[in-house]
Amino acid sequence: MPFSVLSARVLCVRPIGVTSDFCPVCRQERRFYLAQAERKRYFLCFDQGREGPPHHELTCFVCACKVERPSAERPIEILPDPKCAGSYEPTSVVMVKTRIADCVAMEELLQSGKLAGEAREEMIRHTLFSFARIYDEEPLERIKPWVMMLMVIVIFAILILGITAMKQSGSVVPLVSALGAIAMVILALMYWVTAHSPRKRVRTWLALALLPVEPTGEEIDRARREMQASRIKAGDCIRSDKVLAKIVKMKAKPHPMM
Fold first, then answer.
1. pLDDT tens digits, one per residue of 103-158
2. Could you read off the pLDDT of 211-243 as tens digits, one per residue?
């Protein structure tokens, strides 16, 4: 189980700075907020250490989509103070600039109607892999265990107060009010998840990125099989039929980002 009050795997995100990369949704080189993301195991709210290597999470200045990149692309020996995240920009390896140039070149081919063959497959593959790690993310994975434990304590406290007040007054009104307050706490948590978890928005970003390419189900499935061969969970989570249905829906009713 990825999350419980006692034991949890949490995705911890720490702002690092800013950087440049190719945005698959804007379809051009953009500026991004840069953060380090690493999964940690917690038990009874105590940090038990990191699980697997960290990676970088990039958030586009313009469309706010999030993509993941290997931390090796922007090597950082000592992480800067988060207060300097607005101005610090780590040096990117040559491969990053090469990839950006390749993506821009493929975009020019797409715009001219000449994107085909290996270049087309690479654009689809690159788009899916950009969002792969977000598909691996659980809805509550960014919430620290102490927050969940605090919410459980608050819920139990409200329930006990409601039951006590009901017994003293002989009316069910206090209990109903307590249950209403508990519902509000749970709804607040769900709102936070919807507003902050990119897992809730990744299908939209993926569909926006793939819409101009108009991929077929087989082209998406080829990229999925490559993910599965690399044991990337997104290879099982991404459904080509749902992605295509989302694209069709966007064509019928354009998204604000389009």
1. 999 999 999 988 888 889 999 999 998 888 887 777 777 777 777 778 888 888 99
2. 999 999 899 999 888 888 887 787 788 888 888
The answer on pLDDT for 1 being more than 50 is no
Structure tokens at 94: 């040559």
* C-alpha torsion sign, points 187, 43, 36, 203: negative
Which alpha helices (DSSP H) does the chain contain, by range?
94-111, 117-130, 132-135, 145-169, 173-196, 202-210, 217-229, 234-237, 240-252
66-70 and 7-23 strand pairing: unpaired
Q: Are 24 and 65 in contact (CB under 8 A)?
A: yes
d(CA 244, CA 73): 31
Token pair of 228 as six digits: 């599965």
> Residue 177 burial (CB < 10 Å; 0-12/13-18/19+)?
middle
What is the amino acid identity at position 114? K
Residues 155, 254 contacting (CB under 8 angstroms): no
* Contacts (Cβ under 8 Å, ≥6 apart) of 84: 17
pTM comes to: 0.78
Q: Higher model confidence: residue 232 or residue 256?
A: 232
Residue by residue, DSSP assigns 53-100 as: EEEEEEEETTT--EEEEEGGGS--SSPPPGGGTTT--PPPPHHHHHHH
Q: How many CB atoms lie within 10 A of CB 215?
A: 22
Q: Are 129 and 223 in contact (CB under 8 A)?
A: yes
| Residue 198 scores a pLDDT above 90 | no
Contact 127, 24 (CB under 8 A): yes
